[in-house]
Design brief:
The protein is mainly beta. 0% of the residues lie in helices and 41% in strands. The relative contact order is 0.16.
Length: 195
C-alpha cells in the first residue's frame, strides 16, 4: 500500500469529542502543509484537531498527530501554554506564614512568572489578578513564603504565566490551617530526687 496523504478532523472539546465522520481538510503527500480557514471557533472553548494517514484511499485508524487549542473571549487562539508546575507542596510555618515549594521544567514555551492565588474555599477563581507572583529564572526548584492571616484555612493555586499573560493549567492544593500564634516555647520542670 502506498501512502497518499492525511485526513484532518476536529472536535469541540477533547479527543473523545472529535467527529471522525466529517473531515475538515486533507493533505496530499508527505511534508505538505494545509491552512484551514473559515471553520470558526467559539469563544472560551477548547478544540482538538487530529490527523490520520491515508494509504491507497484507506484511512488508518491511528493518529499521526493530535493538537489542542483554546480560544479567548473573542474566539481567538490564546497562544502556546507553558507546562504547569510540578510537585507543589505547602508547609505551615507560624504566625500565618505558609511556605510553598514546587519544581518547574519548561517546554518550548517558558513562563515569565508563576502566578499564585489563595482563598478560603477550594476551586479558586484564577481568572483575576494573582495574589502573589514569583519570577521564573530557570528550570529548577522554587520556594515562596506567603504571609496570610493566622488561624484561617486556605487553599492555594499556582500556574506558570508567559509574558503575554497566558497561564498554564492550574494546580491547586489545600486545605491548610495557618497557625495564628506559633508553637509555645517548651517549659522544663526539674524535680530533684535524693537517694
Amino acid at each position: 500500500m502506498a501512502f497518499t496523504g492525511y485526513n484532518i478532523y476536529r472536535g469541540l472539546g477533547g479527543l473523545q469529542d472529535v467527529d471522525f465522520t466529517a473531515t475538515v481538510g486533507t493533505v496530499t503527500g508527505a511534508g505538505a502543509t494545509k491552512t484551514l480557514t473559515g471553520l470558526g471557533h467559539l469563544a472560551n472553548s477548547r478544540y482538538t484537531y487530529v490527523v490520520r494517514p491515508v494509504y491507497d484511499d484507506l484511512e488508518c485508524p491511528d493518529l499521526s498527530c493530535m493538537i489542542q487549542l483554546e480560544t479567548d473571549s473573542a474566539g481567538d487562539w490564546v497562544g502556546n501554554r507553558p507546562l504547569r508546575p510540578d510537585y507543589l507542596e505547602a508547609e505551615v510555618i507560624d504566625d500565618g506564614d505558609i511556605r510553598l515549594r514546587w519544581h518547574y521544567t519548561s517546554n518550548a514555551t517558558a513562563p515569565a512568572t508563576f502566578s499564585i492565588w489563595y482563598a478560603s474555599a477550594p476551586n479558586i477563581d484564577t481568572s483575576g489578578a494573582a495574589d502573589a507572583t514569583e519570577a521564573y529564572t530557570a528550570d529548577c526548584d522554587y520556594s515562596k513564603t506567603l504571609t496570610l492571616s493566622g488561624g484561617n484555612t486556605y487553599w492555594i493555586a499556582i500556574a506558570a504565566t508567559t509574558a503575554g499573560s497566558v497561564d498554564s493549567r492550574v494546580i491547586e492544593i489545600g486545605p491548610f490551617l495557618t497557625d495564628s500564634t506559633g508553637p509555645q516555647t517548651p517549659s522544663l520542670i526539674a524535680t530533684a530526687v535524693f537517694a
